[in-house]
Specification:
The complex is a heterodimer of chains A (179) and B (396). Helix content of chain A is 54%, strand content 16%. Chain A is an alpha+beta fold and 179 residues long. Chain A is globular. The chains are: A alpha+beta (179), B alpha+beta (396). The interface between A and B is medium-sized, with 15 and 14 residues.
């Protein structure tokens, strides 16, 4: 997993819960990296799982809830780092539909070894989008957070219903209705 | 307080390590990039040198034109061909097209745009000095990385010489055809004109003999006979000559000829004396050829075998064997035979070995000509006094 996901995550934890919480979840986890992360490095996904697990236990917030907040935060990282990419879209549905064929293509140019989830558009109209998420990481709520912020970015809102196709969350359907 | 300091210390240590780790990763990436760029530069230099070499050394003219038709690049051969120095005077490809070939050229350009290439374009071009040259062009579109057409390149071969030769050849062929027809006609007229005085002489001799019946001595009567024989021979010579001239002059037929039927017809035409036995194969093949000429071929060879039979029991054996791609026929006799030293000459015209009155020396020339026309070969085996075997082949 790309280092930027770790660094941004720990920054958010520090922001919301303080440096002590960062120190706690790192010390609590058994990390090969010893908690040393740089945005341009690559680290094991199990480290993220441990950090999330300990944060969830300590804050009594579900992992999904944590990932949702993190996804929402991560959108601001994209806004700051890749304004050009966002500017090429006029509409949130259009942008979410293009994750697979455009955004991920761009991501791979910078991080050729990035392990990305797959997004498949099932149905799409001007006001509605059904898109399937597939990833062994089951970080669908991170995706949901990103989607929420995408609508906000285009000054609109949407009802997004998340249906698990597989119980373990490795395949999830997003049914999006733009308001 | 101590606890807080510890946390901060640990955070600081992590940050430091992270910074160092990032620096290391970046350094590695820089080195990687440097290596890749070095590799690419070497590759680029190599490819450029190769291309430059091709561009300079290619014998044909090499031309690059922009999408708008402006000439971007000429190699030396192209400069020589078109006589333009494009570094000094910009030109457009349209200027090079010979006006009459304009439409063909424009259609070819459309093909080039549509399919990305064209091949075997042949048309005329105008050089700077106004000279018209025939060229052969293979061209293709040059695309950029995004498959957007940016130019077209073409290899232009000067085929003026070849075209001129082709035109010349065509003219010569036409002329030759005309000459042949004329010759054919001439042969007919000449033979007719030659035959009529012969007939007059024959009639006159006849009248003289009649008018002087009983008054001529033996020697004169003998001399008149000799005159008549000479006239007959002359007539035969003219007929044969006409036959020889007419072979190949007219269109030769190409049809299936059943040689069994042909042989049956032939047996009723040929006069076969009682003391000569002609043995035919049980089955003859069907070949592709001209029926009349094939009949003439067999007629001449069998006729010769009959004519030159000197044994009390003559035997003529006709046979055929099937070989890869052709049939080989043989006509064997037990006649007078032909001396080895004449084997090469007998197919030449007017080369009669026998001065008999029925031989003009044209028959075997006709035979050879017919075999040639049917894509075959003819040769013989012979021993003086024992007989001759003629072999010939006909393509399947």
């Amino acid at each position: 997993m790309k280092g930027i996901v770790f660094t941004e995550f720990l920054d958010l934890v520090e922001d919301k819960f303080g440096l002590e919480m960062v120190d706690y979840i790192i010390t609590k986890s058994d990390l090969e990296s010893e908690g040393v992360y740089t945005a341009i490095g690559t680290y094991s996904f199990s480290e993220m799982l441990q950090l999330l697990k300990h944060l969830s236990a300590r804050t009594e917030l579900s992992i999904d809830k944590l990932l949702l907040v993190y996804g929402e935060h991560f959108f601001s990282v994209l806004e700051t780092s890749y304004p050009g990419l966002l500017a090429s879209y006029k509409d949130p549905i259009e942008m979410i539909s293009s994750i697979e064929n455009h955004i991920h293509v761009e991501v791979r140019k910078i991080y050729p070894d990035a392990e990305l989830p797959t997004f498949t558009v099932v149905d799409r109209s001007e006001k509605m989008l059904i898109i399937d998420y597939t990833s062994s990481r089951a970080m669908h709520h991170f995706g949901l957070g990103l989607m929420n912020k995408t609508f906000e970015h285009f000054d609109s809102t949407a009802d997004i219903v998340l249906e698990k196709i597989k119980p373990d969350g490795t395949e999830v359907r997003f049914v999006i209705h733009k308001n | 307080m101590n606890n807080e300091i510890d946390i901060l210390k640990r955070a600081l240590a992590r940050e430091k390590s992270a910074r160092k780790s990032a620096e290391r990763i970046l350094e590695e990436k820089s080195r990687d990039l440097y290596r890749i760029s070095q590799k690419l530069e070497t590759l680029l230099a190599e490819k450029s040198a190769q291309l430059q070499g091709v561009f300079e050394n290619i014998i044909d003219a090499y031309v690059i034109i922009g999408i708008d038709g402006d000439i971007l690049k000429f190699n030396d051969a192209a400069k020589r061909l078109f006589e333009y120095n494009i570094d000094e005077e910009p030109i457009n490809v349209v200027q090079l097209i010979f006006p009459e070939d304009h439409e063909y050229a424009m259609n070819s350009f459309l093909d080039l745009k549509k399919y990305g290439y064209f091949k075997n374009y042949e048309a005329r071009v105008l050089t700077k000095s106004g000279e018209v040259k025939w060229v052969h062009i293979n061209a293709s579109i040059v695309y950029d990385v995004g498959r957007v057409p940016i130019a077209a390149q073409g290899i232009v071969r000067d085929i003026t010489e070849i075209k001129n030769l082709e035109v010349q050849k065509e003219k010569l062929l036409k002329k030759l055809e005309g000459s042949n027809d004329l010759l054919q006609e001439y042969a007919h007229i000449v033979s007719h004109d030659l035959k009529s005085p012969l007939r007059s002489i024959d009639a006159l001799v006849h009248w003289i003999k009649e008018d002087n019946q009983g008054q001529l001595d033996e020697t004169t009567i003998q001399n008149f006979k000799l005159i008549e024989t000479a006239l007959e021979k002359m007539e035969l010579l003219i007929t044969d000559l006409l036959d020889y001239a007419s072979i190949g002059a007219k269109d030769t037929l190409k049809e299936e000829v059943n040689l069994n039927d042909l042989m049956r017809d032939l047996q009723s035409i040929l006069f076969i004396p009682d003391h000569i036995k002609v043995i035919m194969p049980k089955k003859m093949p069907t070949v592709i050829g001209d029926p009349i000429k094939l009949q003439q071929l067999f007629q001449n060879l069998i006729g010769n075998a009959i004519k030159f039979s000197d044994k009390t029991k003559g035997e003529i054996n006709i046979d055929v064997i099937e070989l890869e791609g052709y049939y080989q026929f043989s006509i064997k006799d037990n006649g007078i035979g032909i001396d080895q030293k004449f084997h090469n000459k007998i197919f030449e015209i007017f080369h009669s070995l026998n001065k008999s009155k029925s031989s003009t020396g044209i028959g075997l020339s006709i035979v050879k000509k017919i075999v040639d026309m049917h894509g075959g070969k003819i040769w013989l085996n012979s021993e003086l006094d024992f007989g001759t075997t003629f072999y010939f082949t006909i393509e399947k």
